Amino acid sequence: DFVITQQATPGASNDALPPVIELSRSIQVPSSSQSPVVTAAITDDGTVVSATLTYSSTGSVDTQVAMTHGSGNNWTATIPAFPDGTIVRYLVTAVDNQGNEAVTRRFSYLV
User: Fold this and answer.
1) Per-residue confidence band for 16, with pLDDT thresholds at 50, 70 and 90
2) Is the CB of residue 98 less than 8 Å from the CB of residue 46?
3) Tell me, what's the pLDDT at 12?
4) What is the pLDDT of residues 17-67, one digit of tens each?
5) Nearest to 23 by CA among 6, 7, 36
6) What is the C-alpha to C-alpha distance for residues 93 and 104, in angstroms, rounded to an integer?
7) What SS3 state is found at 97?
8) In angstroms, what CA-CA distances link 101 with 53, 57, 68, 88?
9) Cys staple from 51: which of 20, 67, 89, 104, with CB 3.0 to 4.6 Å?
10) CA 47 to chain centre
């Protein structure tokens, strides 16, 4: 026996999976005068409609920045420079055309 849990939707998207995000950072150990660029290679079985970089520093609240869609699957945003001794934490959120959302783990570095 089987149970139908969802009606067929001819012509509708079957995009049920969230985007997949791979991150890289332009400067691995930034100095207090450097602003690293975070690049997210985002793939999806539908269309990625937005990507957001969320960052914070020691003792501050999260700041969200809309990422810019570049060539191919690449989205970029810049984390501003912070004073020496600052711990900076960041993550990326991506949303596709069906509302599926993916969030990376939180990464960090010491300035």
Assistant:
1) confident
2) yes
3) 55
4) 899 999 999 999 999 999 999 999 999 999 999 999 999 998 899 999 999
5) 36
6) 7
7) coil
8) 13, 24, 17, 23
9) 67
10) 14
